[in-house]
């Protein structure tokens, strides 16, 4: 029986996708639910699984093509499938060989480790089998870092005993370098990021105000309770939960900073869905954590870790990337001292965190070294006045410099 493999329904507001990579070729056997092809949209990579075991009889759309929901990608001939198809649960143990000379799969047979679309492309580029790489991600999932570490290790082990000594060159002699260029098209995600950033600059009246915060008390609190927190909740206590909770207090005091602009209307939100910017192999993503005001510190940290993991693995869904009311971005993890973040429209403000640096500060008339961070709030001056923006940052600063305020909500 022939089965048409079609582009699945795409997320809301997404009209088409790019066919990134086929994982099977014509004539290959496939197992039920095995991923056949990756489709990349503006935000996420979608996997198209096989609806049945069988043989891939025909591929109708090649890599790089643009497709829409319902387009026919390939034709599958349903049947027993290839050697990688798992034996039926009702088959006797051990299962008989599928054909003469082909050993049966026993219960101890090694199965392919879990990989994301980005990792699979990297494995294919270097002609690697996933079983060769040790996965350090959740449930043994292979990450891009795992592949790069394997390649580095493999390069360093290419010299074997008995090989002639490598030729030694005189480093003092000038070496002519070849000039070259490499032109590659933007990914759909990178193109969409570029489009949104340009739109934000052309639409909003963006202005950035700055302040600095002394993180002595937050760091002392983390040091005192970090181990107990992780033992109790099974999640690491990071800085982001403090900043998110401090931001919530500021948003409650100044609701317009939690608002959005729609045409000539200001839409005020009585909920706090906070977007946290995350760097991934495919580019910047902003997963949204819903109702952060109702979360405990542990719930926030666990949800953030889960979202960041999905973003890195390329498994995050469109619904997890839309609908935020306020965004926090942390350039400090890359060493940034100060920046002016760009709005994530239609939101009206974004908070930028930066590196923590020991700086001399005057405390009670004495000069002391304190862990200081610059904060930046970029806001839409069409609806937010400077007074509100500055007072919001002051509120965040007060909450962080006296974390007891976060517990008492004062």
Describe the structure.
The chain is α+β, with helices and mostly antiparallel strands. Helix 5 crosses helix 6 and helix 5 crosses helix 7. Strands 9, 12, 15, 16, 17, 18 and 19 form a seven-stranded mixed beta sheet that branches. The protein has a four-stranded antiparallel beta sheet with strand order 1-8-6-3, with no helix packed on it. Strands 5-4-2-7 form a four-stranded antiparallel beta sheet, with no helix packed on it. Helix content is 26%, strand content 24%.
**Helix and strand sequence:** EEEEEEEEHHHEHHEEEEEEHEEEEHH
Shape: globular
Q: What's the CATH C level of the largest domain? A: Alpha Beta
User: Could you say what the CATH architecture of the largest domain is?
Assistant: 2-Layer Sandwich
The biggest sheet amounts to: 7 strands, mixed
Describe the secondary structure blueprint for this structure.
Elements: E1 2-6, E2 17-22, E3 29-30, E4 35-40, E5 45-49, E6 54-59, E7 66-67, E8 72-78, H1 117-125, H2 144-156, H3 188-203, E9 206-214, H4 216-233, H5 240-253, E10 260-262, E11 265-267, E12 274-276, E13 278-280, E14 283-285, E15 288-289, H6 297-313, E16 326-330, E17 349-353, E18 356-363, E19 366-380, H7 386-401, H8 404-408
Parallel strand pairs: 12-16, 16-17
Antiparallel strand pairs: 1-8, 2-4, 2-7, 3-6, 4-5, 6-8, 9-19, 10-11, 12-15, 13-14, 17-19, 18-19
Structure described in brief:
This protein has about 400 residues and is of the alpha+beta class. It has helices spanning about 115-125, 145-155, 190-205, 215-235, 240-255, 295-315, 385-400, 405-410, and strands at about 1-5, 15-20, 30, 35-40, 45-50, 55-60, 65, 70-80, 205-215, 260, 265, 275, 280, 285, 290, 325-330, 350-355, 355-365, 365-380. A hairpin with a 2-residue loop joins strand 13 (about 280) and strand 14 (about 285).
């Amino acid at each position: 029986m022939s089965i048409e493999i079609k582009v699945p329904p795409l997320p809301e507001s997404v009209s088409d996708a790019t066919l990134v990579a086929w994982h099977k070729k014509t004539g290959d056997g496939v197992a039920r639910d095995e991923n056949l092809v990756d489709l990349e949209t503006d935000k996420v990579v979608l996997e198209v699984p096989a609806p049945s075991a069988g043989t891939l009889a025909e591929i109708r759309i090649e890599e790089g093509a643009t497709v829409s929901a319902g387009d026919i990608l390939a034709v599958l001939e349903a049947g027993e499938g290839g050697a990688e198809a798992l034996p039926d649960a009702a088959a006797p143990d051990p299962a008989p060989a599928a054909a003469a000379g082909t050993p049966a799969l026993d219960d101890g047979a090694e199965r392919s480790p879990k990989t994301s679309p980005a990792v699979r492309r990297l494995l294919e580029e270097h002609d690697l089998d996933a079983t060769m790489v040790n996965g350090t991600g959740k449930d043994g999932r292979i990450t891009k870092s795992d592949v790069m570490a394997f390649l580095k290790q493999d390069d360093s082990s290419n010299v074997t005993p008995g090989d002639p000594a490598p030729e030694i060159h005189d480093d003092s002699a000038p070496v002519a370098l070849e000039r070259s260029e490499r032109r590659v098209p933007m990914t759909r995600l990178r193109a969409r990021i570029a489009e949104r950033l340009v739109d934000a600059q052309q639409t909003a009246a963006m202005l950035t105000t700055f302040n600095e915060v002394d993180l002595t008390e937050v760091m002392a609190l983390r040091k005192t309770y970090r181990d107990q927190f992780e033992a109790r909740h099974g999640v690491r206590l990071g800085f982001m939960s403090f900043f998110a909770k401090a931001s919530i207090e500021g948003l409650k005091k100044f609701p317009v900073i939690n608002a959005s602009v729609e045409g000539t209307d200001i839409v005020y939100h009585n909920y706090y869905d906070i977007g946290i910017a995350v760097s991934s192999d495919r580019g910047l993503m902003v997963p949204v954590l819903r109702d952060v005001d109702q979360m405990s510190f542990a719930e926030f940290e666990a949800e953030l870790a889960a979202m960041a993991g999905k973003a890195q693995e390329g498994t995050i869904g469109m619904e997890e990337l839309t609908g935020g009311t306020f965004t926090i971005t942390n350039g400090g993890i890359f060493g940034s001292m100060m920046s002016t973040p760009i709005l994530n429209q239609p939101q009206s403000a974004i908070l930028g965190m930066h590196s923590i640096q020991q700086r001399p500060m005057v405390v009670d008339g004495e000069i002391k070294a304190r862990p200081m961070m610059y904060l930046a709030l970029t806001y839409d001056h069409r609806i937010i006045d400077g007074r509100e923006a500055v007072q919001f940052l002051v509120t965040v600063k007060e909450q962080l410099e006296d974390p007891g305020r976060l517990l008492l909500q004062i």
